[in-house]
Amino acid sequence: MYSLIEMLRYKRPEGSLTQLDFCIRFIEPMFGVSDTHGNYIKIVNNKDGSSPKICFTAHHDTVHSTEGKQKVKVVKDMVYVHDVTKSSCLGADCTTGIWLILNMVASKIPGVYVIHAGEESGCIGSRALIGDNPDWLDVVESVISFDRYGTKSIITHQSGRRTASDTFAKCLSDVLGMPQLEADDGGSYTDSNEYSKLVSECTNISVGYYNQHTIRESQDLVYADELLGSLLTADWSKLTFHRDPSVVEYDTWYSSMYGSRFDDYGYFKADYATGYADDETKDLFELVCDYPEEVTELLGQLGYTASELSQDFGLQETKYLNNYIGRKVG
User: Which CATH code for domain 2-238?
Assistant: First the structure.
């Protein structure tokens, strides 16, 4: 676990020198230099030489407010920031994902491995990469991000829209031999979502961190080690793919509240966009839709509750709002 703990010492806001130092030290020895967008890509072919159907992803930026090194501490197999007055978060999101990927590549587990740039700034690295339409993307049937909090989730929906089938989630749990990992339709947004219009199964699985983006962030080392062991011993040939990426399916709560505001491809409809007084308000609405988890956390920190907000909005039916905020905060 020493390497993960060492990696967690780097505070890496997008575009910082510390981010560059981290990439040179940990990623480039195995991946080589990045593409023009800052993404690192490594392909490990199947034993028969064929192209892999699974893409594993993480991102090398963090939400730290400052760059440089930080001290971390381990208490009962959990890692924390040593001095919360000198850092804004631990950065296990997404350092743990990178650590998992580096170990998988070192063990020659077949896959397309992508460590993206700028996920915390709006998935700018993955979005640009998809725009380049790399050849390997034609073969890939699944994109698995290592960027979810907790120890129980295989994400099936991101920003209220299905990106992976329940059948795939169950199959992935079985392949990993980790029954505690179950289908979770409460995902917010990460790089795998960017692939969801082209690739069948796009998910995000729990890597054992908690309270991400805050000074209370922590990483469960025991779970990280268990997950890594499962990733290295899994029979990936048994993974099956089911979702049709051309079909848009909203989660029930999302469809009821917001579904009519988007077209069949998940883009904001022009008639709703022009209904706002200015572009800044429209951009704010799209930000809330794309990052509901982060906005919910901020509202909670500011003291808002679901009941208070529903009263302010004059909502008669609050079950979707209450269920959603309760699920995110809980």
Answer: 3.40.630.10
